[in-house]
Design goal:
The complex is a heterodimer. By secondary structure, chain A is mainly alpha-helical. Chain A has 20 helices and no strands. Helix content of chain A is about 75%, strand content about 0%. The relative contact order of chain A is 0.18. Chain B is mostly helical. Chain B is built from four helices and two strands. A two-stranded antiparallel sheet of chain B has the order 1-2. In chain B, a hairpin with a 2-residue loop joins strand 1 and strand 2. Classes of the chains: A mainly alpha, B mainly alpha.
Chain lengths: ~550, ~130
């Protein structure tokens, strides 16, 4: 359906529109980015609804838009399981972390850990967790971007990656969090509009009756009734449970999502932003079924080859079909619009990832570990810009060298596993467990990160072939998602590290400073204020 | 803010009431959503046949249960927001004001005239 390596003029024109808009915003934002608070936290003046759109834009990656639509197209129900997990996860964020992060933190998740723990080890551990998650996620998105633009717009894979990286870095380096926020808001609006338009077209094709959609999709699948059952893609029950666990807890450990809560004026705005995000993300993920089942019903089994690996192109191909088909004006236009939406989607996510990684390097490692808190805010922002450039360049290099052989879904899975097993336990316990101490945090983050990486490397996904059915552990080992082992391990290491070291003098301090963190995180007393100095003490009625 | 006695603030009845009321909502709500969600995931993994059963002309048990997850997330989110607006926020403000008043800085709470500081109100405690 889509001619490969054949430049698609309409798609490129649409990309140009997205770029012009986002670069304009970056220019506007660059004038407002003067201090560290504006660079990392957009001055803390983003409103609840704005932040809700930005969270949605930060969160819904091309993996969810194109990947889940493709999974549903290929395997039916199993793809929808991801959608459910990605949404329910926000209850974990809302109940346990959103407001407390806003009240206790400054720029990075390490701020919350270092509040009561020993600065240097706690920050190194948190920076490790942040960089691991952001790194795996970033490389996955870059590889996806390269493959996608190659297929959709006919741009060479390597050039597409370099271009994505350059624009991502332009937003972050010049416009900081202000530009990143607005790029994410625009992306969320584009993505919701695109998905809604496609859903309406699909429903129109099946007589406005969703039940017809299920039946037509089932009839178009060679699997028949099995297409509407779980188990076609996630064939191992224990692995399904493990994946579900990592999805629901992992979001609460994603540094680029948690960082968004530092951009709002107070806890009240933080929680309302989660509600807005839940509304948008939930509506979007329900629509993924219309896209996936719609692609199945309308494109049928014949469309599988054109949809490419993982059927990532199922949604764009469906758009082309809905617009009138290959070669028609409507088909070309709809395809170009959806391709541009996918482009905006990737740019917004990678910008969020790079800014969170730059915070870990500049604010945590440089200012507080290497310089021991002696550097000025201005030099911190300069270091952040250099760090962002270095991280971006590294991600571009790895994506180009690793090429299309890097497995995108495996790296996204790894990012969620590390987030759930390393970042989430450490953050939750730092905020709620009085005795939790530095040794516990370092042990938990290290154990969570390393066990996730080890289990993924040892999994059957990475050791394909007849001789290695079960991966490193041999036959019968079906765990591709490490969560069910690595999450309990992360918590266990936090607990063991704490109780084994709690009698030492250094660690007694962690317990003593818990009072302050506890009262501050629950009431907002002493929380960071908005940049214009407006005092917003307590829960704050102004949002 | 520096001279707030955080330990005393934590022990204050206002703060304890806040923590108790929050816990009374968050713990059961978290337990409920985790059980409902993980139950769904376990059924997907171990009972695919049941999940594939048709309720109405191809609309399956699994899809219906998946939709209840969306509904649950929105309802539990909305309930928390309502509870936080009406119940937790006033408690948070009272607990914070009490801690500031006890530290001798800032605007004293009207209901505790005895804690009125002698000096002028310090900055940083708006409203």
């Amino acid at each position: 359906m889509i001619p490969l390596a054949d430049v698609n003029v309409e798609a490129l024109a649409m990309f140009g529109v997205v770029l012009a808009l986002t670069l304009g915003i970056t220019y506007w934002a660059s004038k407002r980015t003067r201090s560290a608070t504006s660079f990392w936290a957009a001055g803390r003046v983003i409103s609840g609804p704005q932040n809700g759109f930005a969270i949605a834009g930060d969160y819904m990656s091309a993996a969810s838009f194109l990947g889940i639509a493709g999974l549903i197209y290929l395997y039916g129900f199993d793809g929808f399981l991801y959608s459910v997990g990605f949404l329910v996860a926000f209850l974990t964020v809302l109940y346990l972390l959103a407001e407390r992060m806003r009240n206790a933190g400054k720029f990075t998740i390490a701020d919350v850990l270092a509040f009561r723990l020993q600065q240097r080890p706690a920050r190194v551990a948190a920076a490790l967790g942040t960089l691991a998650v952001a790194g795996f996620y970033l490389i996955a998105q870059m590889v996806g971007a390269g493959a996608l633009f190659n297929a959709l717009a006919g741009v060479d894979y390597n050039i597409a990656i370099v271009l994505t990286g350059v624009f991502m870095l332009t937003y972050v380096i010049f416009g900081g969090m202000i530009a990143t926020t607005w790029v994410q808001i625009i992306k969320a609006v584009l993505l919701m509009t695109g998905a809604t338009a496609m859903t309406l077209f699909v429903l129109g094709e099946v007589g406005w009756n969703p039940i017809n959609l299920f039946n037509e999709a089932r009839d178009a699948s060679p699997e028949g009734d099995k297409y509407l059952e779980p188990g076609l893609f996630l064939t191992s029950p224990i692995d399904t449970v493990s994946l579900g666990l990592a999805l629901v807890l992992g979001t609460a450990g994603l540094p680029h999502i948690l960082m968004r809560f530092f951009t709002v004026p107070n806890a009240r705005a933080a929680r309302s932003s989660v509600m807005w995000a839940m509304g948008l993300i939930g509506a979007f993920y329900i629509m993924t079924t219309a896209l996936g089942f719609g692609a199945r019903a309308l494109l049928g089994e014949e469309g599988v080859e054109a949809a490419g690996p993982g059927a990532n192109l199922a949604a764009p191909n469906l758009a082309e079909h809905l617009g009138g088909g290959d070669g028609t004006f409507g088909g070309d236009l709809f395809l170009a619009v959806i391709a541009a939406v996918a482009f905006a989607t990737i740019l917004a996510v990678v910008a969020g990832l790079v800014i969170s990684a730059s915070g870990a390097v500049a604010h945590d490692l440089w200012t507080n570990v290497i310089r021991r808190g002696r550097s000025t805010e201005n030099s911190e922002v300069t270091v952040a810009r250099i760090a962002a450039a270095a991280i971006g360049a590294l991600a571009i290099l790895i994506a180009i060298i690793g090429g299309k052989t890097l497995n995108v879904s495996f790296m996204v899975g790894l990012a969620f596993a590390v987030a759930a097993s390393a970042n989430f336990p450490a953050l939750l316990l730092a905020l709620t467990w009085r005795r939790f101490n530095t040794t516990g945090a370092v042990a938990g983050v290290l154990t969570g990160t390393l066990s996730s990486i080890f289990l993924v490397i040892a999994s059957p996904k990475v050791w394909p072939g007849a001789d290695a059915d079960g991966g490193l552990f041999g036959e019968g080992w079906t765990l591709a998602n490490p969560g069910i082992i690595s999450i309990p391990l992360g918590f266990l290491a936090c607990w063991l590290g704490t109780v084994l070291s709690s009698r030492t003098q250094d660690e007694a301090r962690a317990e003593a400073t818990f009072h302050e963190l506890y009262v501050r995180s629950e009431t907002g007393l002493g929380a960071e204020q908005t940049e214009d100095g407006q005092a917003l003490v307590g829960a704050g009625r102004r949002s | 803010m520096a001279n707030v006695d955080w330990e005393a603030a934590e022990r204050s009845p206002e703060f304890q009431e806040l923590v108790r009321k929050q816990r009374r909502f968050i713990l059961p709500a978290t337990a409920f959503f985790l059980v409902w969600y993980l139950g769904f995931i376990v059924l997907c993994g171990y009972a695919p046949g049941f999940m594939g059963e048709s309720i109405y002309e191809g609309f399956t048990v699994g899809y219906a249960l998946a939709l209840t997850q969306f509904l649950m997330t929105w309802v539990l989110g909305w309930l928390y927001l309502r509870k936080a607006d009406r119940e937790f926020d006033p408690l948070r403000e009272r607990a914070a004001a009490q801690a500031v008043a006890a530290a001798g800085g800032g605007v004293a709470e009207p209901r505790r005239p005895a804690a009125e500081p002698a000096g002028t109100p310090t900055e940083g405690v708006g409203r």
